[in-house]
Amino acid sequence: xxxxxxxxxxGIVLRPSTPELKGLFFExxxxxxxxxxxxxxxxxxxxxxxxxxxxxxxxxxxxxxLVCIGGDGTLISLTRRSYAWHKPILGINAGTLGFLxxxxxxxxxxxxxxxxxGEYRIDERMMIEAELKNGDERTVMHSxxxxxxxxxxxxxxxKVDAYIDNKWFNTYFGDGLxxxxxxxxxxxxxxxxxxVTFPLTDAFIFTPICPHSLxxxxxxxxxxxxxxxxxxxxxxxVIVDGQEQYDFGPDDSLVVKKAAxxxxxxxxxxxxxxxxxxxxxxWGQDR
Length: 287
Hints:
The chain has about 290 residues and is of the alpha+beta class. It folds into 2 domains: about 10-125 and about 260-280, 3-Layer(aba) Sandwich (Rossmann fold), CATH 3.40.50.10330; about 130-260, Probable inorganic polyphosphate/atp-NAD kinase, domain 2 (Tumour Suppressor Smad4), CATH 2.60.200. Helices cover about 20% and strands about 35% of the residues. The protein is built from 7 helices and 18 strands. The chain has helices at about 20-35, 45-50, 55-60, 70-80, 110-115, 190, 275-280, and strands at about 10-15, 40, 65-70, 90-95, 120-125, 130-135, 135-145, 145-150, 160-165, 165-175, 175-180, 205-210, 220, 225-230, 235-240, 245-250, 255-260, 265. Strands 2-1-3-4-18-5 form a 6-stranded mixed beta sheet, with helices on both faces. β3 (about 65-70), α4 (about 70-80) and β4 (about 90-95) form a beta-alpha-beta unit. The chain is globular, with a radius of gyration of 20 Å.
């Protein structure tokens, strides 16, 4: 049991381009208001369903918890965008997969009541902090799932030099390189042949994408190492969580490390990660 969360204000974000979530939003709003909480919604989500909203950063600052109504992609985006505020995040699954946003709409009322009695848990998931350097220019980014160094077009390959604690250790040549968190191990990393890793582990997973050499294999290392990525290619891309992208060239350096604070996800007490894996990946169906 955890101490009850003192929830006076709730900030809600909806999956973009899904105005049909309006009814579910009002139901979630009603449930939290029945416990005495004020409910805010960010301006973009509000505009989509025709209600008044708040500036996103102002909403995060005011809120005790943040609620995502959508799928895993919406939750990943919210986690990254709200990183500076370090607020606990509850995912309500209005999508299909539900690896992360695991509270179904018909469970919201009973689960919200449990937040006020301490029957919940908060998992802290490792996040990546990366700094893209070009001369005096610095771009800092945070990633929940992965950072991918990718080719600019389907007709080209990319060469990536990887350093660990300032020492060169490998050169990847192929379609790209995935640097994943354990949470992201079941995303692009899994599709590219990388390992599934327990999500509360602190580790980096290197997974080459269609490497030119068959000797290149996924690698898992502790998260206390600092990674630097360089490329001689004139055109390549850095893609964050599959949702943001940056140009990456021979004058650039990408430094990757574990973020100082992880994402805080609210889950049911009884949620078991291995049960989720078995359900979502259809393991053991022939048993």
